[in-house]
Design a protein that fits this description.
With about 170 residues, this protein is of the alpha+beta class. The chain is built from four helices and nine strands. The radius of gyration is 15 Å and the shape is globular.
Length: about 170
C-alpha cells in the first residue's frame, strides 16, 4: 500500500544498482546539505529525457549548494544505460531496477502500460530532498509525466533555504 511521507521523518530505505556497476544506498550518502532523488518514469518517457537533461546541465549549481543528485527508475540495466547514453547524462548518477515495493514505500504513483512502448508497470515522477542523517526535507509527487518541479525554481528555493536557515514545512 502507498502512503504519504512526512517531512522531518526518516526517509524510506533505498538501495539501487547504478549503471556504473555500483550499489547506491541512501543511508550511506552524506552530502553537505541534501541528497536529491529524482524518480523518473523510464526510457520510454520523452519528458523524462528533457527533464533529466536539464538536471544534468545544472548539476554543478546543485553541487555548489551542497546537493548531490541521483535519478532512479524501475528500468532494467540495458534501458538505464541507453537512457544515460542517449540522453547525454554524462555526470548524473543513474540508478535502475527500483522495485514495486520501493515505489510504494516512497509514495510514488504507479501506472500500468497504456501503450505498447511502455513497461508493464512503472512509477510516475517524484522528487525528494533528503537531509544528511536520512530525514525528509521536501517531497514533490506527480501522477502524470508533466508539471514537475522546475530545477531553476528549486535552485532559487535552495539558495533561500540555506541563506535563511528556512525550516522544514508540512510537518504539522
Amino acid at each position: 500500500m502507498t502512503h504519504k511521507l512526512i517531512p522531518e521523518q526518516t526517509a524510506p530505505q533505498l538501495s539501487v544498482a547504478t549503471v556504473k556497476g555500483e550499489t547506491w544506498t541512501l543511508t550511506e550518502q552524506n552530502p553537505p546539505n541534501y541528497t536529491m532523488i529524482v524518480f523518473y518514469r523510464g526510457l520510454h518517457c520523452p519528458i523524462c529525457k528533457s527533464y533529466l537533461a536539464d538536471l544534468e546541465d545544472k548539476l554543478g549549481q546543485f553541487k555548489n549548494l551542497g546537493v548531490e543528485a541521483i535519478a532512479i527508475s524501475g528500468d532494467n540495466l540495458e534501458k538505464a544505460q541507453q537512457a544515460k547514453m542517449e540522453w547525454g547524462l554524462d555526470n548524473l548518477k543513474v540508478g535502475y531496477g527500483q522495485t514495486l515495493d520501493s515505489m510504494r514505500e516512497w509514495g510514488l504513483y504507479i501506472s500500468k502500460a497504456a501503450f505498447d512502448y511502455e513497461p508493464e508497470i512503472f512509477a510516475e515522477p517524484g522528487l525528494f530532498l533528503v537531509k544528511p542523517y536520512n530525514t525528509l526535507y521536501y517531497a514533490a509527487l506527480n501522477n502524470a509525466p508533466f508539471a514537475r518541479p522546475r530545477f531553476d525554481d528549486l535552485l532559487g528555493g535552495l539558495e533561500f533555504i540555506l541563506s535563511k536557515n528556512y525550516p522544514t514545512r508540512g510537518t504539522a
